[in-house]
Specification:
Number of domains: 2
Shape: globular
GO molecular function, one term: peroxiredoxin activity
Largest sheet: none
Protein name: Alkylhydroperoxidase
Pfam families: CMD
Keywords: Oxidoreductase, Peroxidase
Helix content: over 70%
Organism: Geomonas silvestris
Strand content: under 5%
Low-confidence stretches: none
Number of helices: 7
Mean pLDDT: 94
């Protein structure tokens, strides 16, 4: 299921290679700093993206969670459990963004 990063990310990387390289190194260091497996870490990142209402990040982390072995049900649940914390309207929007990815068959 591997895919190329979104073209916006590719443009950022071309324009700001050193910065994006540092961000990627930080992401990898954080992922490697504890006992969580990749799938769990990506589901947490997906939930955080939903909480900050980041449409693009929800798309990206949905794809990455799928690539790490998460099921559509696990992905939807990672967002749904936020309802009492971030509110139903935000969860509903994030679920729509998740479905954008899942319905495209990524």
């Amino acid at each position: 299921m591997s895919r190329e990063p979104h073209e916006h990310y590719q443009r950022l990387k071309a324009r700001h290679g050193e910065l994006i390289g540092a961000v990627e190194a930080l992401r990898q260091a954080a992922a490697n700093s504890g006992p969580l497996d990749a799938k769990t870490g990506l589901l947490i990142q997906l939930a955080a993206a939903a909480a900050i209402r980041s449409h693009g990040s929800v798309h990206s982390h949905t794809i990455r969670a799928l690539e790490a072995g998460a099921t559509p049900e696990e992905i939807r649940h990672a967002v749904t459990v936020l309802t009492s914390t971030i509110g139903f309207p935000t969860v509903a929007a994030a679920l729509a963004w998740v479905d954008d990815v899942l319905e495209r068959g990524y």
